[in-house]
Amino acid sequence: xxRVYQPKYAWTNNKGERIERTTKTWYIEYFHNGRxxxxxxxxxxxxxxxxxxxxxxxxxxxRNGVPMQRLCEMLVRELADxxxxxxxxxxxxxxxxxxTRVLKRMLALTKARNMQQLTPxxxxxxxxxxxxxxxxxxxxxxxxxxxxxxxxxxxxxxxxPYNPIACIQKRAETKKARVRRPLTPEELSAxxxxxxxxxxxxxxxxxxxxxKRKTRIAENARPMTQEEISELARxxxxxxLIYTMLAGTGLRLNELRNLRWSDVNLDAAELxxxxxxxxxxxxxxIPLPPHILQGLCERRxxxxxSELVVPVSDRLLRQFKDDLEAAKxxxxxxxxxxxxxxxxxxxxxxxxxxxxADIKSVQTLMRHSSPxxxxxxxxxxxxxxxxxxxxxxxxxxQAKMLEPAVAAxx
Length: 410
What we know:
By secondary structure, the protein is of the alpha+beta class.
């Protein structure tokens, strides 16, 4: 505990008189790291007391492991680099890349060089800039969550005493308007057939920027070589296998992207979802149906040197839409239900139910924490299955009705 005081000073005037005066400035005195420190604190006694309280709090925080570095001396970029370095071995490559992009953009929009400049006002202004571009509330919240995660990590690692933007709340998200629908077996077969010929079909078409197909390549264009045709066929088999596995195992796209041959047991006809890249962070074994097992065995022979089971291209979404169009499958039906890559997972769940599997087995194979999620989102009803469900309902036994006259005399 220190003290506040006004130091005195003295001098001798021309008459030889000793004169003592007290300074108008207040000082503080405290003991730290084995030495006594005195420094100017303010022009009033209250200012000096506040400064002494701040010093005492800093010394106590230092003893408890809280950093003593000033916020103005802590660079935001260095803190972000340390956070990303610690995050990289804990998450998959796609999540790490997304966090890196989001943090860099947020820090650029806030224009904060040090932690003292990273205020709630600057962060709110940055989020407002993103919102002005018509971005959905869910995307805006992703930027806020990424920045808060970095600052919370800094607090846990004793790099910051507190999270300066903890007071900022997420923006209200509107309910998703998109409702996915599963593919029928006929549509799935047509999609896989279109995928096999997809690379060659797209190679024969000319695209204008990001617009739809416009014209075919001229008839006098250079014909494709046999090597080019073989390479296009290989890519077609690869996309067909992706669609087949998504609809036959229930894997999510990011899970399939991280699947390696070490996770697949062809002899036991099963694959293992590893906890580090599964959505539920749990390891689970998924049995493989015969047609997928055959496809994997063929690919294993053809791609013996590949570590990944099947590489997922960044252009897969665009190729998927083109394959849907070739298979004459509409992206949105009359009810407004859509078809996308994740709809293949819905297809998997629906086919399991239609095959007669019980709800507990479907829940386990879909890797859901609760059957409510399986029944509420991934179980799609259709008129045919509803008719079959009520067709065999037993009729109640009808009791013989008494004649009215007999009933009246009774």
